[in-house]
Each structure stands twice: as structure tokens, then as C-alpha cells.
Specification:
The chain is mainly beta and 120 residues long. 13% of the residues lie in helices and 36% in strands. The chain is built from 2 helices and 6 strands; from the N terminus they run H-H-E-E-E-E-E-E. Strands 1-6-3-4-5-2 form a 6-stranded antiparallel sheet, covered by helices on one side. The longest helix has 11 residues, at 3-13. It is globular, with a radius of gyration of 14 Å. The two termini are 24 Å apart.
Length: 120
């Protein structure tokens, strides 16, 4: 699945029109990157929270996807991100995003992974 297909699948899951998303003028759509430790023991799925935020609307959808590397503790190549994780998320409370992830093709994942997100 290429990047456009991944974005399309995620956008569809949260009710966005992918053509509208891809045709958004430059500079008007940006995503925040966060690096998350998924744990020392490899698992094929799990959850994490993005905390320290403020003023969020409870229940709001969040567009989230794996970001390119490099990742802390996994080498220095940008291609470390090659189709490892799919994720979905929502705003849990005014300060927290709740995210759920799974390894693509049931791949077991551990350690740090970067994610990009946008609250919709």
C-alpha cells in the first residue's frame, strides 16, 4: 500500500474526502510529529496516549499515521518506517489523544516509532 492509499484509507475511516485533503493549498494543512515508545516486548497491536496538550474537543477525530524515521534506537535511515504500523485515534479529553495501532500484516513491533497527527 503506497502513501496515497494509506492516507486515503485513513481519511475514509474518519470521514474525510481524500481529494479535498490532497488538494488543500500548501501551508494550510500541517501535521505534528511525535515519537512514541511502543514497549520493549514486540507486539502486533497496542495503544498509546499523546498527552500534554490543551483545549482539545472531546471526541474529535484525529488523522494519524506513521511518520518517516529515523527513530531513536533503530538506526539512522529514513526508510525504517516502511509500512510497519497503521493507527487510528480520537480526542479522549481536553489534554489527551488516545491512539490504537497495529502492525501491518500482523508484524510485531517494539521500541520507538514516530507518528504524525492532525486533530480534525
Amino acid at each position: 500500500m503506497n502513501l496515497e492509499q494509506r492516507i486515503s484509507a485513513l481519511a475514509t475511516a474518519v470521514g474525510l474526502d481524500i481529494k479535498q485533503l490532497l488538494n488543500t493549498p500548501p501551508g494550510s494543512f500541517s501535521m505534528t510529529t511525535v515519537e512514541v515508545d511502543l514497549g520493549a516486548i514486540a507486539q502486533d497491536s497496542g495503544s498509546f496516549q499523546i498527552t500534554g496538550l490543551s483545549g482539545l474537543t472531546i471526541g474529535a477525530s484525529v488523522l494519524i499515521m506513521q511518520a518517516p524515521g529515523p527513530y531513536t534506537g533503530k538506526g539512522d535511515l529514513a526508510d525504517e518506517a516502511e509500512e510497519m504500523v497503521m493507527a487510528n485515534a480520537y480526542v479522549l479529553n481536553a489534554n489527551t489523544i488516545q491512539a490504537y495501532w497495529s502492525g501491518i500484516n500482523n508484524a510485531s513491533i517494539s521500541g520507538n516509532i514516530k507518528f504524525m497527527y492532525k486533530i480534525l
